[in-house]
């Protein structure tokens, strides 16, 4: 059953419950630091992430270059910060696109009985393929670019949201307040958007944090395989791809963007778990 969306002062209570859990609080702090660093990259980055300096190539981490330099002498710390801008942006855009597609498919399948069978079979067919394989196929068909990676991953993760929306809509459409709205002659579009969709916001918010994490990992995987973002664009995935040939001699080129991926994904997962616990009344009573 869908979880009602908290309103007013209850939101502050939910935030306090989340902050009371140390793992969730630390995760929120890590996310704020990562997002803040990405937004403030032009001001806090000590070097130009694109500037070549062959004289300083493959320098180990030190006072001048905190995370060392890569094979072209570029500062790894600056590239990690700038890479976070695109990696986090890709994750955010994938969540938006997957939400639009997933909500549309899920509401159609759950509210309109005639379309349920067709849409459900489409969702099942898309989920039958492993995420990364379907993403590779879509990017290969569309062409490697930042926009096409977002489109491919949005399509890949839309069925996850569609299944949640469909299952919740099947329950909500039979509730008394929806039946009352129908009896009063409320237009179908208003019932779907106001009465049904409004009650889906909490589970969608929780699932969105998980998809955000999956999208960051998937983008890194696609870039590592060379089918994602162009190699000259600094993302965490492209940095790991560029540094793999120096594994064992200049590990820092791969280690630091890898740590950034781990921190962001783990933090998003823990925040998602915290949201799920505080938004579910049954779990909230146990906190």
UniProtKB/TrEMBL annotation:
Please tell me where this protein is predominantly located. membrane
Q: Does the keyword DNA-binding apply?
A: no
Task: Please provide one cellular component term from the Gene Ontology annotations of this protein.
Answer: plasma membrane
Question: ABC transmembrane type-1 domain: which residues?
Answer: 88-272
Question: Which positions are tagged coiled coil?
Answer: none
Q: Which GO terms describe its biological process?
A: transmembrane transport
Where in or outside the cell it occurs: the entry states: Cell membrane
Family classification: Belongs to the binding-protein-dependent transport system permease family.
Q: Name the chain's protein.
A: Peptide ABC transporter permease
Q: State the organism of origin.
A: Bordetella genomosp. 7
Q: What is the lineage of its organism?
A: Bacteria, Pseudomonadati, Pseudomonadota, Betaproteobacteria, Burkholderiales
């Amino acid at each position: 059953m869908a979880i009602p969306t908290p309103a007013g002062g209850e939101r502050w209570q939910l935030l306090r419950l989340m902050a009371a859990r140390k793992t969730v609080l630390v995760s929120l702090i890590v996310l704020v630091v990562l997002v803040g660093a990405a937004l403030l990259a032009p001001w806090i980055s000590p070097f130009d992430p694109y500037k070549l300096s062959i004289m300083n190539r493959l320098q180990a981490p030190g006072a001048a270059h905190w995370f060392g330099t890569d094979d072209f002498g570029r500062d790894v710390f600056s590239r990690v910060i700038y890479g976070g801008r695109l990696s986090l942006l890709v994750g955010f855009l994938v969540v938006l696109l997957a939400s639009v597609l997933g909500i549309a498919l899920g509401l159609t399948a759950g509210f309109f009985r005639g379309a349920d069978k067709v849409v459900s079979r489409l969702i099942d067919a898309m989920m039958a393929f492993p995420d990364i394989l379907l993403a590779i196929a879509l990017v290969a068909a569309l062409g490697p670019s930042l926009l096409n990676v977002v489109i491919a991953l949005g399509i890949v993760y839309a069925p996850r949201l569609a299944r949640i929306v469909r299952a919740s809509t099947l329950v909500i459409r039979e509730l008394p307040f929806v039946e009352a709205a129908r009896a009063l002659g409320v237009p179908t579009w208003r019932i779907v958007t106001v009465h049904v969709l409004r009650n889906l916001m909490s589970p969608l918010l929780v699932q969105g944090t998980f998809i955000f994490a999956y999208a960051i990992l998937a983008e890194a995987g696609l870039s590592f395989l060379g089918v994602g973002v162009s190699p000259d664009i600094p993302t965490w995935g492209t940095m790991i791809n560029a540094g793999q040939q120096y594994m064992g001699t200049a590990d820092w080129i791969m280690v630091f963007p890898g740590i950034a991926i781990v921190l962001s994904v783990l933090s998003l997962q823990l925040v998602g778990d915290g949201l799920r616990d505080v938004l579910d009344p049954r779990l909230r009573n146990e906190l």
